[in-house]
Amino acid sequence: MSIDPVVGHHKGFCFLEYETPEGGDMAVEALNGAQLGGRSLRVGRPNHYNPGLIATLPPPPPGRLYVANVNEFVSEANVASIFEPFGTPVKCVLIPDVLRRKHKGYGYIEFGDAQASQMALAAMNGFDLGGMPLRIRKAVVGGPLPEGIIDANQRYSLMKRLAQRGVSTVVCIANAVGLEEVDDELQEEFAQECSNFGQVVKVVVHTTPSDPLPERQVKIFVQFTDATGSQTALAALNGRWFGGRQLSAWLYDQDKFYAGNYSA
């Protein structure tokens, strides 16, 4: 929240960014007008928000639902089983928190047809599961579903083994921002964000305006002290949505990084 330097208090507003478009939509729908501290909240999109951006993203399958407010002790198998009366789920994933090795409390469930998802949405939105009411809505973004909590735990075990085999400590991240969004604060922002995954040694923002692929014109290289940090960052960032863009991340050759060769 922005602080007024004169009075030493915040200015009464802030910006929140969700990892998924569905989470942002739900927040606006549920919190606009809600009471907090004796005041009625006004929740909406920022002035520079472009609603047409959603149209540029892949459309979701008609049977896909977004499920939020899931108790941390509820598993993917639990969620899939309670939705089975409406049709056999094609896939159910709860988005993993690779640091805590638990899910983040939200995910997706997908049915083979739209009718099954519509019945599930009507019946299960607000359903109490583990003492918490489920929040459900139609998915906004298509494309392949991310890995679930089971896959993430398997990857975490693999990461620990790879960390002992000289795996690169450098991660390259693409499609985070466009050329016009590169500024002096970008390096520090990614250093802070990636410190959640391990100790960051160095961050390099490299631009290649001549690259024919717009998503590759800005690459951000993050060096960690060890391979556990780079593997954790890779698992958390690759495929993640950031400011309306889907990140692409991969491990980068350390020797090339040390030599200042950023032609990934």
CATH architectural category of the largest domain: 2-Layer Sandwich
List the total number of helices.
7
Report the span from N to C terminus.
37 Å
Average of the residue pLDDT scores: 86
Element-level helix/strand string:
EEHEEEHEEHEEEHEHEEHEEEH
Report the count of strand segments.
16
**Main sheet makeup:** 4 strands, antiparallel
Report the radius of gyration as a whole number of Å: 20 Å
CATH superfamily of the largest domain: RRM (RNA recognition motif) domain
The strand order across the widest sheet is 6-7-5-10
Low-confidence stretches: none
**Can you tell me the CATH topology of the largest domain?**
Alpha-Beta Plaits
Number of domains: 3
Structural class: alpha+beta
The helix content, as a percent range, equals 25-40%
Strand content: 25-35%
Query: What overall geometry do the principal axes of the alpha carbons give?
Result: globular
CATH class descriptor of the largest domain: Alpha Beta
List keywords for this structure.
264 residues; alpha+beta; Alpha-Beta Plaits; 3 domains; 4-stranded antiparallel beta sheet; 7 helices; 25% strand; globular; mRNA processing; RNA binding
Overview of this protein structure:
With 264 residues, this protein is of the alpha+beta class. It has three domains: 3-53, no CATH class; 56-148, 2-Layer Sandwich (Alpha-Beta Plaits); 163-258, RRM (RNA recognition motif) domain (Alpha-Beta Plaits). 26% of the residues lie in helices and 25% in strands. It has seven helices and 16 strands. It has helices at residues 21-31, 76-83, 114-124, 149-162, 186-194, 227-237, 254-258, and strands spanning 3-4, 9-10, 35-36, 39-40, 64-68, 91-97, 102-110, 128-129, 132-133, 135-138, 170-174, 200-207, 218-224, 241-242, 245-246, 248-252. The strands form six sheets. Strands 6-7-5-10 form a four-stranded antiparallel beta sheet, with helices on both faces. Strand 1 and strand 2 (9-10) form a beta hairpin. Helix 4 packs antiparallel against helix 6. The chain is globular, with a radius of gyration of 20 Å. It starts with a strand and ends in a 6-residue tail after the last helix. The model has no long low-confidence stretch (mean pLDDT 86).
